[in-house]
Amino acid sequence: MARYSLERREAVVKKLLPPHNRSVPEVSREEGISEPTLYNWLKRCKEEGMPVPHSGKNTDDWPVDARFAAVMETASLSEVERSEYCRERGLYPEQIQQWKAECMAAMQGSKVSAVELKRQRNADKKKIRELEKELRRKDKALAETAALLVMRKKLNALYGIEEEDA
Hints:
It is built from six helices and no strands. Helix content is 73%, strand content 0%.
C-alpha cells in the first residue's frame, strides 16, 4: 500500500476541488493514484467542511458551500468565461444566477434578522428589568411578613397566649 506525503495529497486534491473540478478518473490516470484512494481523500475533505461538488449529474444536489464557491469563482468572469466554466462542471449559467440570488437573499435575510434580533434583545432586557423589580418587591413583602410573624410569636410568648396551628 503506497503512502503519500501530505503535500502531494493536498496538490492532488486541489485538482479535484473548485475551481478545477477535474474528474477522479482523469486525475487518477495522470497521477498514478487509484480511484478509490482519490474518492477516499474527497470524502475526508467533505467531512472537514471543504466545498466538494457532488459527483452525480444533478447539480442541484451540490452542498451549499460548493454552490457558494461556484458563485464566488464566477463573480468576476465574463459571460464567455462563465459559460466555459459551466460547461466544464456540467452547470447552466442560469443555475449560477439562481444560486447568486439565493446568496443575496440569505444576506438580506441576515440583515433583517439582525435588526429583529436587536429589537428582541431590547424587549427581553426590558422584561428582565420588570421581572427583577417585581422580584425585589416580593422579596421585601416576604421579609416584612416574616418579621411580622416573628414579632407576633414573641408577643404571644410574652403574654403567654397559645397559638393554634390551623
